[in-house]
Amino acid sequence: MESKYPLDYISEGYKNMDELEKTQVMVEFYMVGDEFDVDIVSSLLQIKPTETRQKEDFPIKEFAKVEWSISTNYQESKAISCQFERLLAQLSSKHEIINKIKSTYNLECGFNVVIKIINDEQPEMVLTRECINFASKINAEIGFDLYYYI
Fold first, then answer.
1. In three state form, how does the secondary structure of 68-135 look?
2. What percent of the chain has pLDDT over 90?
3. How crowded is the C-beta side of 9, counted as CA atoms within 13 Å?
4. How many C-alpha atoms does 41 have within 13 Å on its Cβ side?
5. Are 32 and 108 in contact (CB under 8 A)?
6. Which residues is 109 bridged to in the sheet?
7. Per the domain annotation, does 4 fall within a domain?
8. Which residues form the domain of 121?
9. C-alpha angle 126/128/129, rounded to 5°?
10. Tens digit of each residue's pLDDT (9 = 90 or more) over 85-130
């Protein structure tokens, strides 16, 4: 999970802020719920998840959920739509399967767009019609996390 503290570049393997030269974008698609088998979701979607979490992985039990997610890596980017399109290439034909999984296991799904803004170089933040239409088909939320590095 992304931390909100600017010194996190240290914990992410960067030796100093100079290594973070350009703004970076990562987009994640997630499915969360109270109880479900993440391996079944992977099998039905025929996608290997980037990350899975079980309830015991959450530090605050009241907010604990089971989570299955795929994401792009952080990449230098001038437009968030580039990373979104990478996920849509994997997911767009699977909207019916996603909806069946959601209804069967009572799950919620969404997208997180995480932007590390370096030296005030902000990427274009446009959601294409394809992104909006796909999110609508699966009733997904879209969230944005912005982290500024000066």
1. EEEECCCEECCEHHHHHHHHHHHHHHHHHHHHHHHHHHCCEEEEEEEEEEECCCCCECCCCHHHHHHH
2. 69
3. 19
4. 31
5. yes
6. 31
7. no
8. 17-149
9. 140
10. 999 999 999 999 999 999 999 999 999 999 999 888 888 899 999 9
Q: Which amino acid is at 71?
A: S
Structural domains of the chain, count = 1
Residue 18 has a pLDDT of 52
Coil, helix or strand at residue 150: coil
Of residues 73 and 133, more confidence is placed in 133
1 located within any domain: no
**In this structure, is residue 2 part of a structural domain?**
no
Whole-number mean pLDDT of the chain? Answer: 87
Q: How far apart are CA 53 and CA 65, in angstroms?
A: 8
Whether residue 8 is contained in a domain is answered as: no
